[in-house]
C-alpha cells in the first residue's frame, strides 16, 4: 500500500543542530513541506562547539554557502589539524594534520617505507611529509590549487574554527529566507498519539503560553535534555564514561595573542585537557576534565592560568555524560545533535555527526508509513558512525605513558572496546592500519595519533624490503623537499584571511 507523504516537519531546538537541520531540509525539500523550528531564547544553547573537520565544507557547499561570506559572518579561521601537547608523555607534542601523508609508492603504503627508514635512523619525523602539519607549524594557509597537477599544493585539506552562535544565526537567516518558520517559546509538554497504528508517536509539543505545535515528523535538537527522544519517549542512554571519563568542562573566551594559528590545540592536563580555538576576534578555550579526579575550582583555576590573553568573560561550566542514545530514531522522532549523545570534543566531531545524521535522514526520509526497515538501518548506521569515532577518541586517552596522575594511569590500563583493541594489535605487529567500513577517520588519522603517542610497531610490511634502503631514503627525501618548497610559497594564515574574509 502507498503511504502518503508527510506535511509537517517540526524541529525542536535552535542550536547548531536545529539550524543545520532546518537549513539542509529547507534546501532539499524546496518549500514542499512545512518546516518549523521551536526554540527558547530563555533556555539558550550550549554555546560551545567551534572547531570542525573538513567534511563541513561539503555541507556548506550543498547549501550554496559562499566560503568567504561564511567566514566573515562567523569570525572564522582555517584549521589544518589539531596539535596535541602532553598526550603521550609530558613534554610530547605532535599534530594530527588533515589530508594525506607522503606519496603513494606501490605496493605498500607510504608509512610502511617510513617506518623502516625511521627504524634505521634514515627518515625525518613524520610531520615533514605532511603539508598540513608543516604549513600549520609555519602558520601558513591557502586553499588547494587544483590547477597545479600532482603537487601537495593541490591536496591541502582543511576545516574551520568559527563562532558557533554566529553560525547558527547565519543558518537561521538562510533557513527563514527559504520558508522555515521559527517559533519562540518554552516547550512544557509533549502530546503522544493515544490510539491508531501510530499510538505512542509524538503528536504535538505544547509551549508555556498554551500554543500547540503539531508535526508528522519531529527532529529532536533540544540538546542534552533530549526533550522528545528521552523525556517523552524514554529511549534510554548508553553510558560510556568507563571509557571516556571526562564529564565536565569550563569554557571561557580570551583575547587573541600571538600569531593566528591555523590549527586547534589540545593540551593534556592532570585530569583532562584544554582546548584552544583561534578565531579572528578572540580565542575560545575550555578545560574538559573528570570531576572524579579534579575539583571544579581546581579545573577552573587550571584553565584561567593557561590562557593566551585576558579572559573576556567569566568561565562557564558545562556538565555532560559521554555516551549515546540507544536509538537515534524512535517512532516519529529523530534525535540529532547533543540529544542523540555526546563524545568528547577532542577530535571536533560533534558537528560532523550532526551533518552525517542529516545526510542519513535525507537518505531514509520517511512518509507516513514510517517503515521499520528504514528506521533500523538509520539506527545501525548512526551507531556505526558514533562507535568508530568513539574508538578513535578513546585511543588518545588509552595510549598515554604518563605516570603523573591517577587519571592517566587509569586511562592507560582500562579495557578498551574490542574494535579498538584489534586496531592497536594490528598496528603493533606490522604497522598496519585497517579502515573498517569507510569509517570517518582514515588510516592517516590513526597513524598520526598512534605514532604521535609513541605506539611502535615491532616490524613493518615485509615488501618494503623489496626495494633498496638507499632508493627508499632518496624517495622520502624527495617528498620532504617538495613539501618544504610548497609550504614556503604559502601565505601567512592571518594575511590570507585579511585578504579574503576578514570580519568587521
Ligand atoms: P544546544 O546548543 O543545547 O541547543 C538546544 C536547543 O534546544 C536550544 O535552542 C534550546 O533553546 C532548545 N531547547 C531546549 N529545551 C527547550 C524547551 N523546553 N523549549 C524550547 N526550546 C528548548 N562540537 C564540535 O563539532 N566541535 C567542537 O569543538 C565542540 N566543542 C564542544 C565542547 C563542549 C564542552 C561541549 C559540551 C560540546 C562541544 N561540541 C563541539 C558539541 C557542539 O557544541 C554541539 O554538537 C552543537 O553545539 C549542537 O548542540 P545542539 O544544537 O544539539 O544543542
Largest sheet: 7 strands, mixed
The end-to-end distance, rounded to whole angstroms, is 57 Å
- Output the radius of gyration: 24 Å
Q: How do the strands line up in the largest sheet? A: 5-4-14-15-16-13-17
CATH topology of the largest domain: FAD/NAD(P)-binding domain
The tally of beta strands, per DSSP, is 21
Helix content: 25-40%
Bound molecules: flavin-adenine dinucleotide
What does this structure look like?
- The chain is α+β, with helices and mostly antiparallel strands and 504 residues long.
- It has three domains: 8-50 and 179-239 and 322-370, FAD/NAD(P)-binding domain; 80-161 and 389-493, 3-Layer(bba) Sandwich (FAD/NAD(P)-binding domain); 248-319, no CATH class.
- 35% of the residues lie in helices and 19% in strands.
- The protein contains 15 helices and 21 strands.
- A seven-stranded mixed β-sheet has the order 5-4-14-15-16-13-17.
- The chain is globular.
- The N and C termini lie far apart (57 Å).
- The relative contact order is 0.18.
- The mean pLDDT is 97.
- The structure holds flavin-adenine dinucleotide.
- Flavin-adenine dinucleotide is lined by residues 13-18, 38-40, 43-46, 48-52, 164, 186-187, 221-223, 225, 227, 249, 286, 318, 320, 337-339, 345, 348, 350-351.
- Flavin-adenine dinucleotide binds next to helix 1, strand 2 and helix 9.
Amino acid at each position: 500500500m502507498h503511504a502518503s507523504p508527510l506535511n509537517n516537519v517540526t524541529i525542536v531546538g535552535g542550536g547548531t543542530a536545529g539550524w543545520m537541520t532546518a537549513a539542509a531540509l529547507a534546501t532539499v525539500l524546496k518549500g514542499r513541506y512545512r518546516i518549523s523550528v521551536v526554540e527558547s531564547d530563555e533556555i539558550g544553547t550550549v554555546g560551545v562547539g567551534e572547531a570542525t573537520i573538513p567534511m563541513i565544507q561539503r555541507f556548506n557547499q550543498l547549501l550554496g554557502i559562499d566560503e568567504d561570506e561564511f567566514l566573515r559572518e562567523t569570525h572564522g579561521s582555517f584549521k589544518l589539524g589539531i596539535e596535541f601537547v602532553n598526550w603521550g608523555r609530558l613534554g610530547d607534542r605532535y599534530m594530527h594534520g588533515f589530508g594525506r601523508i607522503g606519496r603513494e609508492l606501490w605496493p605498500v603504503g607510504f608509512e610502511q617505507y617510513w617506518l623502516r627508514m625511521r627504524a634505521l635512523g634514515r627518515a625525518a619525523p613524520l610531520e615533514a611529509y605532511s603539508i598540513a602539519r608543516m604549513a600549520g607549524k609555519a602558520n601558513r594557509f591557502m586553499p588547494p590549487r587544483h590547477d597545479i597537477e600532482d603537487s601537495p599544493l593541490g591536496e591541502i585539506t582543511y576545516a574551520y574554527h568559527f563562532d558557533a552562535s554566529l553560525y547558527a544565526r547565519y543558518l537561521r537567516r538562510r533557513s527563514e529566507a527559504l520558508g522555515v518558520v521559527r517559533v519562540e517559546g518554552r516547550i512544557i509538554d509533549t502530546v503522544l498519539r493515544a490510539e491508531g497504528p501510530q499510538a505512542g508517536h509524538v503528536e504535538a509539543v505544547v509551549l508555556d503560553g498554551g500554543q500547540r505545535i503539531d508535526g508528522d515528523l519531529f527532529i529532536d535538537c533540544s540538546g542534552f535534555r533530549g526533550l522528545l527522544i528521552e523525556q517523552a519517549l524514554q529511549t534510554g542512554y548508553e553510558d560510556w564514561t568507563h571509557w571516556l571519563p571526562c564529564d565536565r568542562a569550563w569554557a571561557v573566551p580570551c583575547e587573541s595573542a600571538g600569531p593566528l594559528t591555523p590549527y586547534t590545540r589540545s593540551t593534556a592536563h592532570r585530569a583532562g585537557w584544554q582546548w584552544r580555538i583561534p578565531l579572528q576576534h578572540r580565542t575560545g578555550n575550555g578545560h574538559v576534565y573528570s570531576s572524579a579526579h579534579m575539583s571544579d575550582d581546581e579545573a577552573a583555576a587550571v584553565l584561567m592560568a593557561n590562557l593566551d590573553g585576558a579572559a573576556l568573560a567569566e568561565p562557564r561550566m558545562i556538565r555532560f555524560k559521554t555516551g549515546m542514545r540507544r536509538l537515534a530514531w524512535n517512532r516519529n522522532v529523530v534525535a540529532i545533535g547533543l540529544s542523540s549523545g555526546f563524545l568528547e570534543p577532542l577530535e571536533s566531531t560533534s558537528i560532523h555527526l550532526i551533518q552525517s545524521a542529516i545526510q542519513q535522514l535525507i537518505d531514509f526520509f520517511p512518509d507516513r508509513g514510517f517503515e521499520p526497515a528504514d528506521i533500523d538501518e538509520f539506527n545501525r548506521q548512526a551507531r556505526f558512525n558514533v562507535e568508530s569515532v568513539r574508538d578513535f577518541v578513546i585511543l588518545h586517552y588509552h595510549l598515554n605513558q604518563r605516570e603523573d596522575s591517577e587519571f592517566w594511569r587509569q586511562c592507560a590500563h582500562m579495557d578498551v572496546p574490542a574494535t579498538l583493541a584489534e586496531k592497536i594489535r594490528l598496528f603493533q605487529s606490522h604497522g598496519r592500519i585497517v579502515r573498517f567500513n569507510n569509517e570517518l577517520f582514515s588510516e592517516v588519522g590513526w597513524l598520526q595519533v598512534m605514532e604521535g603517542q609513541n605506539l611502535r610497531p615491532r616490524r613493518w610490511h615485509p615488501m618494503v624490503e623489496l626495494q633498496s634502503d638507499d632508493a627508499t631514503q632518496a624517495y622520502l627525501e624527495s617528498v620532504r623537499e617538495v613539501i618544504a618548497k610548497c609550504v614556503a610559497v604559502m601565505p601567512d594564515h592571518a594575511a590570507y584571511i585579511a585578504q579574503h574574509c576578514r570580519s568587521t
